[in-house]
Queue: 4 jobs
Job 1
Amino acid sequence: MREIRRGTREDILEIGAVYDRILTEEEAGRASVGWVRGVYPTESTALEALEAGELFVMTEGGVLTAAARINRTQVPVYTRVPWRWQAPAERVMVLHTLVVDPLYQGGGRGAAFVAFYEDYAWERGCPFLRMDTNEKNAAARALYARLGYREAGIVPCEFNGIPGVGLVCLEKRLE
């Protein structure tokens, strides 16, 4: 049975292993996410989310298959994005570092996690949704487009310690 719950300290090593598997896929040329091993993401990325109370994980039969951070924190580069909906910060929810384990890709896990994020935001009075991904991450961009997210802009920047990123900033308004 698929469940999305708050992450725990016991999840951190497995999330780190998921990051490692994604980075291995990237290095082998089987995926393109634009991450750099040892820079972003790392176990500390997940640990910071946990310590802030913002880490969520998807499990199936006790196996961690996906994870993300959800909060109201808009990264500084967002100030350079021509958002369609200018919303007060307290009404915006942001999805960060959504990962689906390459061992479990397919089966709608990414879409299910985004649906959870949307419900979570709505329940907290945040109808304005934002997220970002690397311009290189065609799979994520296609998923978000299918789920109704609009690419508000692509901002060149250094992101999470990675230089030369074209950061695709996406938005959606819940009705």
Job 2
Amino acid sequence: MNKPEANRLDARQEKLSAEMSNETSRILNQYVPGDETSFTIIAFPVPEIGEDFEKIFEETIAINTLDYEKYKAIQQAVIDVLDEADYVEVTGKGNNRTHLKVALHPLADKNKETKFENCVADVNIPLGEVFTSPRLMGTEGTLAVSTVYITDFQFKDLVMTFENRMIKDYSCSNFENPEEGKALVKQVILKNHDTLPMGEFAIGTNTTAYAMARKFEILDKLPILIVEKMGPHFAVGDTCYSWAEESPVYNPNGKEIIARDNEVSVLRKEDVSKAYFSCHTDITIPYAELDKIEAVTALGERVLIIDDGRFVLKGTEELNVPLSGL
């Protein structure tokens, strides 16, 4: 409910807020350079999560300690197909009207280069995703999700459309007045920017985490660190490698991940103020709302990775085991 006494910014203050955020990021990077800094993040539940705390804690331990080598091989099977693709097509099912085309960067040398990072718990825990910074030209369509929690807000029927590299329109059904919903999306997700690019596309593989969330009905209580691994997710804002695009990154197989820039972030070479938005917000489509994820080659050949919310690509079948009881 939008209370009249709630604090809110006018248009001038929103602009100042966005400018301050950008300048703060620039100063922070000056003294804590992104290309010289690494991190590992891990999340655990606290007793306030409810009477099932002990069981949830035990299952969170299991999620956080999944077999590195097993997932490395499974996710590499997905990456091998994506490296052959020109773009990925993602579609929702039922009432979810997601229909997105995500353009991928070309590879100059397939023996030495790759488009996706094989995320196996060496940067953030738990493991369970392959991700890339998409090519903006050619990335277009509709992203929708029935409910998603971002910071302290639950967004209902969140819809975003992408066109000409950027977010063209957005909405949610949190309020009777659609303009109030639009204002909430702009404030919380767009961080008061008029538009943002798609900075990341990822396919989450941690079906064990998804099964736990459904079992204990705690999706609204899980941090994005876990939720982002529970289906395909799309981040709006900066790329996955912001402020560190010049630093080479390699997968466990030794291939360099070349998709570290996009058409916006590369503007840092001309004017750094045009390259970054100081935000990176993940939006995950749960498997239950997902129809297909297909890799499409330049010749139009299609390879299914997920069909009807289940992994069908050869070498990924084991990911469906935790989903079998849902």
Job 3
Amino acid sequence: MHFTYPTVPMTDEQLKALPEFGFDSPFKVASLLLLSLCAWSQDREACYQMIDTLKGPQKMSPMDRQFVRDRMMGKGDYLARAYFEGATPDNNYTPNEPYSIDVEENAYTYNDPGYARVQVNTTGADSPRYITLRQKGEEWFVWEFAGILPDIRKPKAEDPWA
């Protein structure tokens, strides 16, 4: 599914104010997670608050926060942006505006009842990355997203071999 956002929210209030905000689709929630991670380099606490909103009833633990911090450290300016259309290592992962992202289904997306494992692509890696969402009633929430935080190709500005 294709999602387009006019801006990147920098607070939980801005995230909730987006017309696209909602928990009715695992694909939508996954796209909102990637959008939320873009705020990490500006305000970590605001980023964590947005993730907590998307996680629903189970908030981030201190260990979850540490994991995100460890993965984003040194690449927080580009790691989340790398999943958006137009972002490439050659342009230092500068996405097109408005911000667009594709969240895809595959043969295994709904393998486990109550869960959805969606995939996102980045030009920074050779294979898709995954986000797992959990259903509660009719709503979907972020369950596991470590798969989108591994290292990717360095942006050209940071690559001494470019």
Job 4
Amino acid sequence: MFYEDKTVLETVGQILISSLFLGTLTINATTKVKQHVDRMKEMAIPFPSIVLWIGFLIQAAGSSLIVLDFYTKIGASLLIVFTITASIIFHRFWNVKEPLRRHLHVSFIFSNCAIIGALLLLI
């Protein structure tokens, strides 16, 4: 059975971590594809649509493995790679001139560091 070697807190934490990725995946893959592709084109990311959908697949695979408590270490590793890559692509605070937007991107980087920390704890 799933989660049989985990405490209640570990189980809840694992489900919450994966729900973050599953929730953002659902929003981004259904309503924000064009917006993300356009931003990636502006940043000269090669083959932005393909790169974006590969990212979505990695996000789906990693979060599914974690929520199903099946090869959790592999799932967490996939999401670490995804989070680092997405941060580099979408949160380039050093290029943002407007102070409030720059601050938001820096905050996203710090939040993503905390998320990576939680994923490392799963490993």
